[in-house]
Backbone:
């Protein structure tokens, strides 16, 4: 079959095409290059075209001779080599001159800045970012966004330190402040945004004060809020009813009693907890404690909160998700393996897609005193110290957090997040009745995460010690927290 | 005497062609050989030699991933810290138990399976492929499937608990079951590779030896014990050495087990192998120098273990 490049190549035939391919191998220009060069010789004008189609470079020569364009092979290998050498030499000389003299006047106007944006992807999340990034690129013609998608949020947090070391961390990252943001700020791995915010004219007055406060460290702002996040307590109503429990617990003591009842009546776990720093923190807060940024690690309230969990594990009323074959607490609750768990709005998207038949309720977390609370925090865009153009990054962030982007968070309930902008939180609540228990008043009084400065190391040691206590029955809560106070505490 | 006469005839010939100054053509050939080797040598240098050298250098430094270029030499501090670190001792202990369980198990089972396969008349290729398949399959996929099988009430966990009177539990979530679970997954994955190695060895044992043993009245087990096993001795050595080198570096399966949001080495440090320890120190806890020191210790263990195995098990069949 003769290959004819009709339309574009005129009457070029398959053999011409193959000759052109042969010439391509001789030329040996670097992969990914793209260039077009004209050479006029007598009446014929030659244009060497290098294109990339479906990831493969395709280079061809167009010879225009009296109006006819033909695809032909050009020159002998020797001539080609000289041409290539001449081209490379000219390019190198030109590059050196440009580098030495700086950008040409007016060149900045046509320059496109490529900004890398890193976030943890997923089926529900990717369409959101595709949408808002497209909108931002349309509004900012000089900015091109390159998405760096991490498979999971845990992967993102695991990979970021090595990316910082390698200098490959994206210019902008999306994360929430349950992550060790303070540690990154302390190590100058992310930029303080206060000045950039004022110079770019980003308006943060529409975001809840608690959220701005959560992203403020030592007086500087380290994230522009994208979504609001809060902790909550999740009840599998079907499992509770099966155990004869008809009213939701009002205090943590009642949670413990109900967990035991569920275990005794159904043989299933009354409570499940994913053993990481964030989830353990909810229980120390529920007993009136907190880490106090390292000052109060071994406080009486913290010991009480941790001991509450240990007692439930000892009574078999609590399980870790993987003990029932679940990858996280939501799966255990959705699979009717556990009746209660600390969770958050991310349950809404998961339960609607993976466990639509399970009747559940999302409420503020009960405390030992009968009051309720949530931890108010949120996801935000941060600019890394690796960024080449922080001002351009802030321009992009301005569009990525504008009214359209926030509205999209509110209406796309499968996204699983609450919009950061206060004006859209009510809309989200209206569209997502499961979230109605988390009122504006509850959010406004939300607590913050007060991790010690060496957050990663502290979290690792806390979880390791907790696992030893509940799984190996080795050590005590008091001894664990005392040792952590000594190792990671601040005065 | 005849031998003594014969030998000197060749020696002077060799000596006259000086090794220091090869003929011009030979030198040209060497030049071509080195030129051809150069790309591979460069790649080996970049991808293998340089990382090892850099790891050794890092082992004597304190490095913060957030400020990677600012390295401080701390002498033997990292090694001293390893010496007194209970977590490191624990990881050495876990790795040692794992190796002691895995290497003999996979060697014996692979040899028995290979021997049985050799006697299969038809469909040998199918069986060989079937055994080799897990080795070619993704570690994450295999481990995840096993996690489903060994969950409380799951097909294998329930059967094993019924047969052996063990508690029906999720193996990878219980400290006393997690390491045996790791051994099972690991042996399942690597057994196919060693079956293929042993099959190659068994095919090299002369058929005449088996026939002679048969004529002498040897049964199947006796032929296996006195003909096959001595015949594949060099292969046994290879499988033990290679198995040891692989097993001491166990990481992937333990990493997958802890991927459910838990910390590495979960549950309660039951799968905290040496490589898990060094990975955690280097990349999770931001102690790159300390992790590198652990990697150097691992390198020494692998080297010493290999030398020791070769000394203890003579290669000659």
Residues:
């Amino acid at each position: 079959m003769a290959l004819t490049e009709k339309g574009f190549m005129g009457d070029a035939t398959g053999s011409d095409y193959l000759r052109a391919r042969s010439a391509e191998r001789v030329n040996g220009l670097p992969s990914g290059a793209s260039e077009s060069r004209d050479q006029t010789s007598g009446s014929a004008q030659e244009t060497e075209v290098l294109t990339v189609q479906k990831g493969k470079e395709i280079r061809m020569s167009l010879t225009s001779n009296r109006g006819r364009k033909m695809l032909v092979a050009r020159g002998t290998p020797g001539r080609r080599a000289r041409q290539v050498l001449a081209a490379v030499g000219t390019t190198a000389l030109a590059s050196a001159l440009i580098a030495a003299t700086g950008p040409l006047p007016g060149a900045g106007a046509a320059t496109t800045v490529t900004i890398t944006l890193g976030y943890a992807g997923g089926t529900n999340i990717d369409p959101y970012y595709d949408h808002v990034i497209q909108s931002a690129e349309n509004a900012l013609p000089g900015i091109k966004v390159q998405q760096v998608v991490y498979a999971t949020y845990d992967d993102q947090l695991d990979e970021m330190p090595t990316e910082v070391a390698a200098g490959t961390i994206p210019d902008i990252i999306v994360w929430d402040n349950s992550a060790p943001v303070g540690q990154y700020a302390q190590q100058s791995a992310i930029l303080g945004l206060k000045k950039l915010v004022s110079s770019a004219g980003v308006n943060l007055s529409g975001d809840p004060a608690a959220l701005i406060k959560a992203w403020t460290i030592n007086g500087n702002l380290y994230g522009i809020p994208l979504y609001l996040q809060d902790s909550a307590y999740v009840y599998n109503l079907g499992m509770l009813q099966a155990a004869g429990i008809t009213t939701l617990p009002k205090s943590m003591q009642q949670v413990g009693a109900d967990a035991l009842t569920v275990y005794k009546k159904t043989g299933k776990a009354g409570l499940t907890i994913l053993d990481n720093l964030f989830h353990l923190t909810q229980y120390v807060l529920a007993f009136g404690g907190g880490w106090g940024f390292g000052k109060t690690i071994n406080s009486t309230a913290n010991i009480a909160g941790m001991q509450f969990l240990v007692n439930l594990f000892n009574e078999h009323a609590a399980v870790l998700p993987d003990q029932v074959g679940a990858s996280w607490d939501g799966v255990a609750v959705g699979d009717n393996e556990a009746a209660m768990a600390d969770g958050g709005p991310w349950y809404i998207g998961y339960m609607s897609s993976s466990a639509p038949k399970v009747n559940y309720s999302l409420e503020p977390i009960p405390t030992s005193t009968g009051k309720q609370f949530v931890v108010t925090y949120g996801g935000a865009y941060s600019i890394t110290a690796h960024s080449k153009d922080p001002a351009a990054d802030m321009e992009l962030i301005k569009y990525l957090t504008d009214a359209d982007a926030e509205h999209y968070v509110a209406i796309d309930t499968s996204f699983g997040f609450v919009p950061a902008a206060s004006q859209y939180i009510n809309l989200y609540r209206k569209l997502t009745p499961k979230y109605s228990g988390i009122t504006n008043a509850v959010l406004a009084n939300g607590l913050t995460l007060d991790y010690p400065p060496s957050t990663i190391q502290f979290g690792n040691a806390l979880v390791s010690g907790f696992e030893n206590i509940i799984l190996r029955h080795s050590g005590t809560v008091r001894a664990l927290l005392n040792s952590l106070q000594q190792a990671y505490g601040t005065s | 005497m005849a031998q003594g006469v014969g030998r000197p005839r060749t020696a002077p010939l060799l000596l006259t062609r000086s090794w220091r100054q090869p003929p011009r053509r030979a030198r040209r050939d060497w030049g071509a050989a080195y030129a051809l080797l150069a790309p591979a040598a460069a790649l080996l240098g970049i991808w293998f030699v340089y990382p090892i050298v850099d790891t050794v250098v890092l082992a004597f430094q304190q490095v913060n991933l957030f400020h990677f270029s600012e390295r401080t030499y701390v002498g033997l501090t990292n090694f001293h810290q390893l010496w007194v670190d209970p977590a490191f001792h624990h990881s050495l202990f876990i790795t040692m138990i794992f190796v002691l369980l895995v290497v003999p198990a996979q060697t014996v089972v692979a040899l028995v399976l290979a021997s049985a396969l050799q006697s299969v008349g038809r469909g040998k290729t199918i069986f060989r492929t079937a055994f080799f398949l897990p080795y070619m399959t993704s570690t994450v996929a295999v481990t995840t499937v096993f996690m489903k099988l060994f969950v409380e009430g799951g097909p294998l966990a329930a059967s094993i608990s019924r047969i052996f009177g063990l508690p029906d539990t999720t193996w990878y979530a219980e400290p006393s079951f997690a390491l045996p679970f790791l051994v099972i997954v690991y042996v399942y994955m690597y057994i196919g590779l060693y079956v293929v190695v042993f099959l190659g060895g068994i095919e090299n044992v002369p058929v005449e030896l088996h026939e002679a043993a048969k004529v002498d009245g040897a049964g199947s087990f006796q032929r296996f014990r006195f003909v096959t096993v001595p015949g594949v001795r060099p292969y046994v050595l290879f499988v033990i050495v290679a198995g040891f080198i692989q097993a001491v570096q166990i990481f992937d399966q333990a990493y997958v087990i802890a991927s459910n949001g838990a910390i590495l080495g979960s549950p309660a440090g039951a799968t905290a192998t040496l490589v898990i320890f060094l990975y955690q120190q280097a990349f999770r806890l931001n102690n790159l120098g300390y992790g590198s020191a652990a990697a150097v210790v691992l390198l020494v263990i692998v080297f010493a273990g290999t030398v020791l195995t070769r000394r203890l098990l003579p290669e000659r069949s």
Confidence is low (pLDDT under 50) at residues 1-16 of chain B. Chain B touches chain A at residues 64-68, 147-148, 151-152, 154, 169-170, 172-175, 259-263, 265-269, 280, 283-286, 288 (CB under 8 Å). Residues 24-58 of chain B form the longest helix (35 residues).
